[in-house]
Design brief:
It is a single chain. The protein is an alpha+beta fold. It folds into two domains: about 5-60 and about 260-360 and about 410-450, no CATH class; about 85-235, no CATH class. The protein is built from 14 helices and seven strands. It has helices spanning about 5-10, 35-45, 65-115, 120-135, 145-155, 160-165, 170-175, 185-245, 330-350, 355-360, 365-375, 380-385, 405-410, 425-450, and strands at about 20-30, 50-60, 260-275, 290-300, 305, 315, 320-330. A five-stranded antiparallel beta sheet has the order 1-7-4-3-2. Strands 5-6 form a two-stranded antiparallel ribbon. Helix 1 (about 5-10) crosses helix 9 (about 330-350) and helix 3 runs antiparallel to helix 8 (about 185-245). The longest helix is centred in the middle third of the chain and has 59 residues, at about 185-245.
Length: about 475
């Protein structure tokens, strides 16, 4: 994970420095990382501070049992994830094939719609298209008896043209009785059963094609739902594999290959919204201000060993603990920019695998999938324009649109986009910073007292907690 303190320095520079930083370091044979971390977390959360974990790194020396155990667990998560990912890849291929088939069916059905149209021009266009399809896909199976073969190789030069010209049996009789002799008895004998087959083919193939398209639409819907389900199964394995990846202490001198040593780094970001003083109660804030505390915890454990049959490890010789407490005052825009920069840094620093596989896999086919899956609901949508009809596949893609208020809000992309504090905001920032300092100090001091350590002689007013 990206270090928030380093990101604060990178984004804000000298404009935002930690106030009253505190450090607490000790080495104990009884020190354990879990009770220390949860004591601090519970202490802060019990006092209604919004708290989130911003750093969670660990690494073990290659010779330790913890290294082998974590490696096996990470490998297991990766293998399970790859199995599900292989299934997703197969389904994506199936969806791709279904979409292309449905496009062909849609084009073919358009010819039938033209053929059954009341417009003479559309009828003519549809009939010619269907005759082409029938000649190339149905009649061609007759081999040497196919109309194209008879017209080009057997001397029936007018046979193909007459097949295109004739629209019904009456026209065939008229042409046969024509004095010019366009269709003699022999050609009439060939055309009559062929045209009869063609007209029957139109009737049955139209019905069959509509049924086939309906079946494939339902299958497409099933495949899309399946890939959503697989994606939800895959996400926990990918997240677990990433969390089990050892990182954060590469090159650290404390990690000796043959030793049994493990190191952990945890950081918490806590914030509490500040309220305007009574003298400014009539003023309406355009952005919120927060008292912020970043609590860092580093632990180096000595001689880890298995303490349970499930594979949990403990430290029989305790370890060294380094704790840091830093106070800041930030507003909404600053926190938003900071988190955005941290996310971008995280993506650029590592090959981050997207856990939203369904969205990534189907994003390029989004328009086609929505088109085919929503075709049958067009009439219902027209009747229910006022109802909240949510696309069942919107969860795969971008979700619901933003409200007007959210759209109109300017996106904060750099420090220049953040407006400077006005007079009242400056006063509120000072109050927030004072509360953050008091809050940071109270965690530091009460932790020492609760664990029998020497405390400072300086009294403090517990304003934050």
């Amino acid at each position: 994970m990206v270090d928030m303190q380093e990101m604060i320095k990178k984004v804000f520079g000298d404009k935002m420095k930690p106030k009253s930083p505190l450090n607490l370091n000790f080495d104990s044979e009884q020190a354990q990382i879990e009770p220390i971390y949860y004591w601090i977390l519970d202490f802060v959360q019990d006092r209604k501070w919004e708290t989130e974990k911003i750093v969670d790194n660990f690494m073990s020396s290659p010779g330790s049992g913890n290294f082998a155990e974590m490696g096996q667990r990470a490998t297991k998560m990766q293998e399970e994830g790859m199995k599900i990912l292989g299934g997703i890849n197969q389904i994506v291929k199936s969806i791709l094939s279904l979409v292309y088939d449905l496009k062909e069916f849609e084009i073919r059905l358009k010819h039938y719609d033209d053929y059954f149209s009341e417009d003479k021009g559309e009828q003519e266009k549809g009939m010619l298209a269907l005759k082409n399809i029938w000649l190339d896909n149905v009649d061609m199976k007759r081999g040497n008896g196919a109309i194209n073969v008879l017209a080009t190789q057997m001397g029936f030069a007018t046979l193909r043209d007459l097949f295109y010209i004739i629209k019904d049996e009456e026209e065939l009789k008229k042409i046969s009785n024509d004095k010019d002799g366009l269709a003699n008895t022999q050609i009439q004998r060939i055309l009559t059963p062929r045209l009869d087959d063609f007209w029957k083919w139109i009737k049955y193939s139209h019905k069959e094609l509509k049924n086939r398209m309906s079946i494939e639409k339902n299958y497409l819907k099933s495949q899309v739902e399946t890939i959503k389900l697989y994606s939800s199964w895959l996400t926990p394995y990918l997240n677990a594999a990433e969390e089990l990846r050892q990182k954060g202490f590469t090159g650290n001198a404390a990690l000796v290959g043959a030793f049994s040593t493990s190191m952990f780094e945890l950081k918490l970001f806590s914030k509490k919204k500040e309220r305007l003083p009574e003298r400014f109660k009539e003023y309406k804030l355009k952005r919120e201000y927060y008292s912020c505390v970043i609590i860092g915890l580093k632990f180096r454990g000595h001689v880890s060993q298995r303490v349970t049959q499930q594979g949990d490890y403990g430290f029989v010789r305790g370890g060294r603990v380094d704790m840091t407490f830093e106070a800041y005052a930030m507003n909404d825009d600053e926190i938003s920019l900071l988190k955005k920069e941290m996310e971008m840094e995280s993506v650029s620093d590592s090959m981050k695998f997207s856990t939203d596989v369904a969205k990534d896999a189907l994003e390029d086919l989004r328009e086609d999938i929505e088109h085919f899956l929503n075709d049958d609901k067009e009439e219902e949508k027209d009747k229910k324009k006022k109802s909240d009809d949510i696309n069942p596949f919107m969860a795969i893609f971008s979700g619901l649109s933003l409200s007007k208020k959210e759209k109109s809000k300017k996106e904060i992309s750099s420090l220049k986009d953040i407006k400077k504090d006005n007079f009242i905001e400056k006063e509120l920032r000072k109050i927030a910073l004072d509360d953050a300092i008091d809050g940071s100090y109270s965690v530091y001091d009460i932790y020492k007292k609760a664990h029998g350590m020497a405390s400072t002689y300086i009294s403090f007013d517990n304003k934050s907690f």
